[in-house]
Amino acid sequence: MQATIAKLGPDPLVDDLAEGEERFTATVRRKPTPIGLLLMDQSVVSGIGNVYRAEMLFRARVNPHTPGRDVPEETVRQLWRDWVRLLAIGVETGQMMTMDDLDPEAWRRAMAHRDDRHWVYHRAGLPCRICGTAIVLEEMASRKLYWCPNCQR
């Protein structure tokens, strides 16, 4: 079991946040693998699932097909910090909430209805909440990936 745990990437819930950011950034920046796959690789970073992957990439305006080594360092760091923030919100609320700056009524609606909590996840074919372009659904590593081809060029 220790060997398995040792292979896991940093986890904001158990690892030092600064050290985790450095490990995550160094690993992503040396890989030719698309960032959309790296975020799902538990040896790169622990715990990011399908919902958070789609939402984090949208929030950072990163194309999921961009090789990790081609994602600017500051953007990789932003992804880590966003994961830390979103995970804390998830632990606090018990919900995967990825929308920011909601007024109190929108917050209540989002807490009551999953469809109001996300920018792109589960929104295939619907207009992007930012630009109006249809959200794309594709398969990446046998998992559903939602993203905006305009906002995430």
UniProtKB/TrEMBL annotation:
Source domain of life: Bacteria
Residues of the FPG-type domain: 119-153
Keyword RNA-binding appears in the UniProt entry: no
Family matches, as Pfam families: H2TH (PF06831), zf-FPG_IleRS (PF06827)
Alphabetical keyword list: Metal-binding, Zinc, Zinc-finger
Family annotation (SMART domains): H2TH
Keyword presence, Zinc: yes
Name assigned to this protein: Formamidopyrimidine-DNA glycosylase
Organism: Microbacterium paludicola
